[in-house]
Amino acid sequence: MILDGKALSKKILEEIKIEVQKLDKKPHLAVILVGDDTASRIYVNNKKKTALNIGINSTVIELPEDTKEEVLIEHIKKLNNDDDITGILVQMPLPKHINKDNVVCAIDPKKDVDCFTPENVGKLALGMKPYFYPVTPQGILIMLDYYGIQIEGRHVVVIGRSNIVGKPMVQMLLQRNATVTICHSQTKNLDDIIKTADIIISAVGKKIVRCKMVKYKSVLVDVGISRDANGKLTGDLNFSDFKDINEILDFVEAFSPVPGGVGPMTIASLMLNTLLFEHTGILRRIAKSGLE
Ligand code: GUN
Q1: Which of 43, 45, 90, 272 maximizes ligand 1 atoms within 8 Å of its Cβ, making it the mutation to test the pocket?
Q2: Is 36 designated active site?
């Protein structure tokens, strides 16, 4: 089975649009971009375009590369105090001279749509309800749930320990009663660990998972994005040992493609967070109606 994040995210965004139309006060997402990292600019433009398409207001604040930390924090405080702004996202990575921890701590947890602030991350770790769940892990779980992938009791190997994906993914999986192993750049015998996984979630940015080596009928979720030798967008999963897509589909329970898997789910998940209310109604409706 292919985990079609593109189709599922399209459906979620359509449903959000319907919900937003019913609201008197529209959600308003503020995105701060510091510097001119090309990839970050593309991500930010995507977020803005998606928000506008579904009726969510969006403001992008672009600051130059040499912006002082205090100036950035002033912008955040202004947004914290602006009642029209419902969500704040500071695009990462930040330039090296800025301490990202100070920046993250300045965001009002009630507007922290990324789940980056200590209050939200702490609540997540304690099994309490944060104001927002982290977007990429939330998007992955929505996708696994939609496709009926069982999580409880299964061994999930998460590769990558970033604050954005790996660490919060572990917390959310534990809450779903998975058995979780987290691997990273210093992990020894990664291939041996991978072989024991029922579900692999890889967020590295390198072709690190040789899929012929994984357990038969495991679930492979690809969060990695990099470019191959021909400049084509690609993920962490290496399928080069397989003859064709049919052989892959016979071997795995499911896998998420790059592009068209986790990437679009992350944006849909951010928009769900920006909508600011319980998402279960929307997700239940989609589970019933399917993607047509
Ligand atoms: N940079 C890469 N992914 C993300 C994300 O999910 N949120 C923010 N703020 N920055 C990112």
Answers
A1: 43
A2: no
261-272: buried (b, 16+ CB within 10 Å) or exposed (e) per residue?
Answer: bbbbbbbbbbbb
What CATH superfamily is the domain 135-262?
NAD(P)-binding Rossmann-like Domain (3.40.50.720)
Ligand 1 site, CB within 6 A: 89-92, 114, 135-136, 164
Q: What does the angle CA 152 – CA 154 – CA 160 come to, to the nearest 5 degrees?
A: 105
Where are the chain's structural domains? 23-108, 135-262
Q: Choose, from 11, 111, 112, 114, the residue flagged as catalytic.
A: 114
For domain 23-108, which architecture applies?
Answer: 3-Layer(aba) Sandwich (3.40)
> How far is the centre of ligand 1, averaged over its atoms, from the C-alpha of 108 (Å)?
17
Nearest ligand 1 atom to alpha carbon 89: 9
Distance from C-alpha of 97 to C-alpha of 104, rounded to nearest angstrom: 15
Cα of 270 to ligand 1 centre, how many Å? 10
Per-residue pLDDT tens for 131-159?
999 999 999 999 999 999 999 999 999 99
pLDDT tier, 278 (very low <50, low <70, confident <90, very high otherwise):
low
